[in-house]
Specification:
This protein is an alpha/beta fold and about 290 residues long. The chain has 6 helices and 15 strands. The chain has 2 domains: about 100 residues, Beta Barrel (Elongation Factor Tu (Ef-tu), domain 3), CATH 2.40.30.10; about 160 residues, Nucleotide-binding domain of ferredoxin-NADP reductase (FNR) module (Rossmann fold). Helix 4 packs parallel to helix 5. It is globular and about 55 Å long.
Length: about 290
């Protein structure tokens, strides 16, 4: 279930390369589940940006605040006109949003060891998940990556829920030098995780799904792909999968996803599709690296 409301910016803060927006969005926070996102309309009537597609944004945190109810925090990476407009919003500004949207992460019924893999601001999708897993007694290990320190989401609350944290950056400015795909196999082995959750770019997600299969673990991947309307109406987010019956199908990434079992995604077909239509969730319009 989701609602469409006019949200108000309650707080805004720049941290590294990301803008953190806290929104008063009545009715949204109460419905959020781990892995949910919201779709934000861009621009105001008469502005050039008003013709841009809506932007899907990971719901990073839900926090009750006196007088406002359950506020919703999202993380924006300003890389294009739409996300720059969002990042430029000031306290008191209003914007139309719809949420929570998408298929969320599924939680284990019994306490099991888990590994959470996040890349850049895809880490924003993991905060609520880590909290719910911790509440259920599931040991949580983290593998966090980014191109550089500025784009590594520094979330101390997330790290407090974990028994171990591995950090990797492409330029070696924080943690180990390399990328998530390089380390996921070894990190999975060390954590002895039975379930792996990931919100990252397509190469990292594919590596997570492959490593999970090799280690006999179950993977859930928040797939990075364009989500033009984010509600399933435009049919603009075709996600190639293998269905339960073994038949290849194409589903809608924003409705049947963005969270999909890693062993069900046709990764080669998805990467070929992404190469033809660039741009992901969170920053410019794809779920996983950028809702």
């Amino acid at each position: 279930m989701s609602v469409h409301v006019t949200a108000e910016v309650l707080m805004t803060k720049r941290i590294g390369a990301h803008q953190h927006l806290t929104l008063v969005a009545p009715g949204v926070g109460e419905l959020v589940r781990p892995g949910s996102f919201l779709a934000a309309s861009i621009g105001r009537p008469g502005e050039a940006t008003a013709h841009l597609a809506r932007r899907p944004l990971w719901i990073h945190k839900v926090q009750p605040m006196a007088g406002y109810g359950a506020t919703v925090q999202v993380v924006v990476e300003p890389v294009g006109p739409g996300t720059r407009w969002l990042a430029g919003l000031a306290v008191g500004d209003r914007l139309d949003v719809t949420g929570p949207l998408g298929r969320p992460f599924a939680l284990p019924r019994e306490p099991v060891a888990t590994l959470l893999v996040g890349e850049a601001h895809g880490v924003a999708a993991l905060q609520l998940l880590a909290e719910r897993l911790h509440e259920r007694g599931c040991p949580v290990s983290l593998l966090l990556g980014a191109p550089d320190e500025a784009r590594l989401l520094p979330d101390l609350e997330l790290r407090r829920t974990a028994r171990s944290v591995v950090v990797v950056t492409a330029d070696g400015s924080v943690g180990q030098r390399g990328d998530v795909a390089d380390l996921v196999g070894e990190t999975l082995r060390r954590s002895e995780a039975q379930v792996v959750y990931a919100a990252a770019g397509l190469p990292a997600l594919h590596a997570v799904a492959r490593a999970a299969e090799e280690h006999g673990a179950w993977s859930q991947t928040a797939v990075a792909m364009p989500l033009p309307c984010a509600t399933g109406l435009c049919q603009g987010c075709p996600l190639p999968v293998v269905a339960e019956d073994g038949v290849q199908r194409t589903v809608r990434g924003c409705v049947e996803g963005p969270v999909v079992r890693g062993d069900r995604v046709r990764w080669d077909d998805l990467r070929a599709q992404a190469a033809a239509v660039p741009g992901p969730v969170g920053s410019a319009g794809r779920a996983g690296t950028r809702p």
